[in-house]
Every structure is written in structure tokens, then in C-alpha cells.
Write a structure and sequence with these properties.
disordered N terminus
Length: about 210
């Protein structure tokens, strides 16, 4: 019987070791310097009333865990029609998670991409606080880029997001682009390369 039990024990060991290893790699991605910058921004954005966390990952998690400060943060990026109508402190786990979810939905509507978004458990259970940092960095970058007067703090704390080049084109240029595509499609139906001169040249990108 002992021999049969041995593989089970052996399987448990590495699985536990692996999950610990994965967790330690995730922990290594958490950046204490970034934490300081994000705390400074949240305090500048929301006001001194939000207080400050104890330094370190656990302090950062505890500070943001109930979702209230995060909700105040996203609301502070709007002048009117603030996305989260009700911010309520609660000691109940499901209420806190609900408040965090409201922040995540509002952050997505603000423009944070799904790939930059943390999951509620990442913050609530401390599973991946580096992901929480990533979401807040993306939010800060968007806030700086929008230049709508809502951002508070040092603009150098965040990189501006790259603007889409398409916004720089006039309607006439866009129409011209469509007609060129139409010509190419027409010419490609026949095997002839006539009239195709110039289309193979590299596209010039003007900053």
C-alpha cells in the first residue's frame, strides 16, 4: 500500500513547489518604486483624505482592497457624469469585490485595454499585485494623454499613450486612400502589372 501512495505524494510535492515558484516570479514583477509613484499620483488625484498605505506590497493591497480609493480615483478623472455613482465602505467581502469590479468596468470604459486590466482576485487575494500596478499605470498614461484638465500630479509620472495616426488625416486624404485601394483591386484582377508603378514604394510615415 505504501508503494501505491508514494506517487501521489511525489506528485503533490512538485505541484506545490511549482505554484510557489510561479508566485515568487509574479512577486518579483511587483515594483516598489512604481508603488511609490502610484501612491503619490492617487493622493494627488484624490486628495489627502485617502491617506497613505504602509510601505510595501501588503500595505498597498490593504489600501486599495475595498475598492473605494480606486473608485474615487476613476471618478476624479471626470468633471461630470462620474462613472461610479455610489462609493460605500464595507467590511463585507462581496461588497468590497463589487466595488473593485465597478472600478474595473469604469477603467475599461475610460480606455484601459483588457490586456492591461487586473482581475478582482489579483488585488483582493493578493494573487498578482504587479497586474494591479499595470492597470494603474495604463490609467495614468491615458489620463495624461487626454489633456482634459482632470489629471493631477506630475505629468512625467506616466508616458503618454501613442495617438493613432489616422486622426491626422483629412477626409480628402482618407477618400484618396480608398480610391487607391479600389484601383489596386481592379488591376489585380488581371495578371497585368500595368499601371501598378509606384504602388510598391515604401509608405512614407510623416510624424
Amino acid at each position: 500500500m505504501a508503494a501505491q501512495g508514494a506517487p501521489g505524494m511525489a506528485n503533490k510535492g512538485p505541484a506545490y513547489g511549482l505554484s510557489r515558484e510561479v508566485q515568487s516570479k509574479i512577486d518579483k514583477k511587483y515594483d516598489p518604486e512604481l508603488e511609490e509613484r502610484l501612491v503619490e499620483w492617487i493622493v494627488a488625484q484624490c486628495g489627502a483624505g485617502v491617506g497613505r498605505p504602509e510601505p510595501g506590497k501588503l500595505g498597498f493591497q490593504t489600501w486599495l482592497k475595498d475598492g473605494c480609493i480606486l473608485s474615487e480615483l476613476i471618478n476624479s478623472l471626470y468633471t461630470t457624469n462620474k462613472p461610479i455613482k455610489k462609493i460605500q465602505t464595507s467590511s463585507m467581502a462581496f461588497k468590497q469585490m463589487e466595488q473593485v469590479s465597478q472600478f474595473l468596468n469604469a477603467a475599461e470604459r475610460y480606455g484601459v485595454t483588457k490586456t492591461d486590466m487586473f482581475q478582482t482576485v489579483d488585488l483582493w487575494e493578493g494573487k498578482d499585485l504587479a497586474a494591479v500596478q499595470r492597470t494603474l499605470m495604463a490609467l495614468g498614461s491615458l489620463a495624461v494623454t487626454k489633456e482634459d484638465g482632470c489629471y493631477q500630479g506630475d505629468p512625467n509620472w506616466f508616458h503618454k499613450k501613442a495617438q493613432e495616426n489616422r486622426r491626422d488625416f483629412s477626409d480628402d486624404q482618407l477618400k484618396e486612400g480608398k480610391s487607391v485601394i479600389g484601383l489596386q483591386m481592379g488591376t489585380n484582377r488581371g495578371a497585368s502589372q500595368a499601371g501598378m508603378t509606384g504602388y510598391g514604394r515604401p509608405r512614407q510615415i510623416i510624424n
